[in-house]
Structure formats: structure tokens, C-alpha cells
Amino acid sequence: MADAKKLFIKTYGCQMNVYDSERMAEAMGAEGYVPTDSVDDADMVLLNTCHIREKASEKLYSDLGRLKPLKAARPNLKITVAGCVAQAEGAEIQRRMPLVDIVVGPQAYHRLPAMVRAGGQSVDTDFPPEDKFDHLPQRKAYRGPTAFLTVQEGCDKFCAFCVVPYTRGAEVSRPPSRLLDETRNLIDRGVREVTLLGQNVNAWTADGWGLGRLIRELAALPGLDRIRYTTSHPNDMADDLISAHAEVPQLMPYLHLPVQSGSDRILKAMNRKHTAAHYIDLIGRIRAARPDILLTSDFIVGFPGESDADFQATMDLIETIGFGMAYSFKYSSRPGTPAAEKPNVPDDIATDRLARLQALLTAQQRAAQTAMVGQEITVLYEKPGRLPGQMVGKSQHLMAVHVEDTSGKVGDLVRATVTAAVTNSLSARRIPD
Questions:
Q1: Cα separation, 257 vs 239, whole angstroms
Q2: Radius of gyration in angstroms for the set of CA atoms belonging to the chain, rounded to a whole number
Q3: What is the Cα–Cα distance from 326 to 299, expressed in whole angstroms?
Q4: Of 223, 249, 355, 412, whose CB neighbour count within 10 A is largest?
Q5: Mind listing the pLDDT tens digit for each residue in 408-423?
Q6: Contact status, residue 199 vs residue 164, Cβ threshold 8 Å
Q7: Are 331 and 301 spatial neighbours (Cβ–Cβ below 8 Å)?
């Protein structure tokens, strides 16, 4: 591989972008590119962007600015911007930053190799009629026993704060036969756990199947020990999917189910199309099916029009449900979304609310971790620990675990006893087989 070209990828944002970056790396691998961790060594730099949070564009242009000296010194260096900011801004990126050679959206990245071969500057932010997955090479190599698997893309919900329907397009579900084949391929390469991905993953439906049936069919594949899925919408938690949590041992007792607010008035303004009572009832049904499930969620504070009473309703919902972990943010206006036209809550008020909400969520997370001490868990090893005789992996609840184990290796799925809970992780001792 003396003549191999080197590809540096920086991935912003969610797990779907991680998956997309892996697929783009595989596509460019077929063109003779190999991964590098050093931007200074790269023949091609790919920035795979996310548009969900505030200042996403600014972060991109800041990174591009840092690449200017490298491009000036090495004019043949190819610089590509992919992902949701690429979709949203298109040719404007090259207008502002002429050093960018290629701009490609998340639905067109299967065309990236051809764009590179063509040379020069190009932009492709189409929503092409062909299925990009039909044009990507077969997945070949993995760095560990876990893998992401995109099953669904896009969203039809049009939440008032969200750009996803505009940057990722309408909901599209991949056919089950292809998902089963890709999973078999993953298993053949040592993968023991897959996480099914989608902007609205539990809206997946194809050939008369729902996500619950897909999970059951995947669980029947020999060698697949664990299944997860993310991210879900409360309105698409079908009965069969809920029952799968009770009936499919491979489906891990972990669920990320964003609620965003506990105020019905704010939920309506967000166009979430569910109420707090509906969400609480849904959680009750899920916990009845799988009592040991660990729940996580997303919260936005300071949404336009949020009053003290609205915020308190969110705090009350958190107290009522109890979360093992959650992501929380101050509302940030996304251009082109309905909420962007509304006046914001004063920043000092939103900042204070976020601090109070995060304090409550942190206390619940610590309580959930502390409750694990003395309990038996299962851990899938992903890498050796920093200390001798230590392995690191994830529990069935997606908690990071450092396990005392002098004979373990990556890919082992072991039983362990939790000995301590620290910030964002557990310590454990392996139980002999």
C-alpha cells in the first residue's frame, strides 16, 4: 500500500453521522484511500457535519479556516464538506470558502468517489431517486464487536425547532432483506452488537414489517447477542415494539425516547403531537414490559414562549418518571424552522432553567448508577483498559464499565459484579465462568 492515499475524517454530531462517515471511508477505500488520524498527513480531508445545534455553520467555517494554511502549502489536498450543513448551505460553502473542493449532502454521498475522480469543484445536495445503499461497497472491516446499522433516514414529524426534515428529507425505510444481509455480514466480521439507527428509527416500516418484527428477525441470526435502537419518537412506539422489550432477550434494556418538554402548551408549540400524560402512560407500559429498562431522553429549555409554569411542568415530569441519563439544551434557533420566527426567552432565564434541570437530571443519573453497585451485569468488551488487568465495555444499560479481568479480550461478553459507581461509568469485577 505504498501508493495509498490518506483520508482524514472529522465527524460532528450524532451516531448516524458516525455511520455515514464509516460508509464514506469504505467508499473511498475502494478508490485507494486509507484512514489517517493526522490531518497533516492527509491527501483528502472530509468534514461530516451536523446541523442540529446552534452555531453548526460557524464551527464548520472555523475548522475550514484552520485548514487554509494546509491547503495553501499543498494545493492538491482535497477538502470535502459532507452532511447536514452541506445539505443546508450547498454552494454557499464554496463561495465563502473557495478552498473546499466538494460539497455533498447526506443522501448523495455514494456519489463521492465519482466526484473525487472528476476533479475540480463540485456540489451535490440532491435527493437522488436511487438508493445510496445500493451503490456503496460491502462493509469489510470493523474496529470492535459493536456496529451501527442505519435502517431508516429522514423525518416526517416537522417539529418546530428541527431542521432534520429539510436536511435529511422524508422518512425512508431500508428493505428488511438488505438489513438482514448487512447484519449477517457484520456478524461474520466479529460484530456481536448492532445499534439500529434512524432519525426516527421506530417509524421504520417495510414489506408490512414494523421495527418490532425487524428486531425479532435480527435476534434469530446466530451470533448476534445484543440489539439496540435509537432515536425514537413517542408517537411511533407500537405495541409490537413494546412487547419485543419483554420477549426478545437480545434487545437490551435501554431506551432513548425524547420528550423535549413536560408542558402540553409547549409540546403543542413544538408540534410534537403528544402530551405529557401520553408520554407518562407510554413509559408505564414500557416499564411493565421490561421493568429493568433504563430510560434516557432529550430536553429543550427556553423554547419560545416557555413560562415559569411550563418549565416547572418539565421538572415535574422528570421527577415523575426518573431518567438514567438525559441530554438537555437551551433552545437555539435554526434558520428556516417555524420556531425561528418567534421571540426567544431571555438568555439569563434560559441559562438558569438549564442549570436547574441539569442538576435534577444529574442527581437521577447518579442515583441510577449507585443503585447498580452490588448488582450483576453483563459487559461486552470493546477495548483494554488503561490499567493492567482491566477491560472496558458497555453494560446492557449502555453504561461504560471498567472490569477487573486479567484474561479478557475484546469481543468477550461476560458477567460481572458492580463494585463502584463513578462519574459516567461503573467499576466491576468479572464473575468466573
A1: 15
A2: 22
A3: 8
A4: 412
A5: 999 999 999 999 998 8
A6: yes
A7: yes
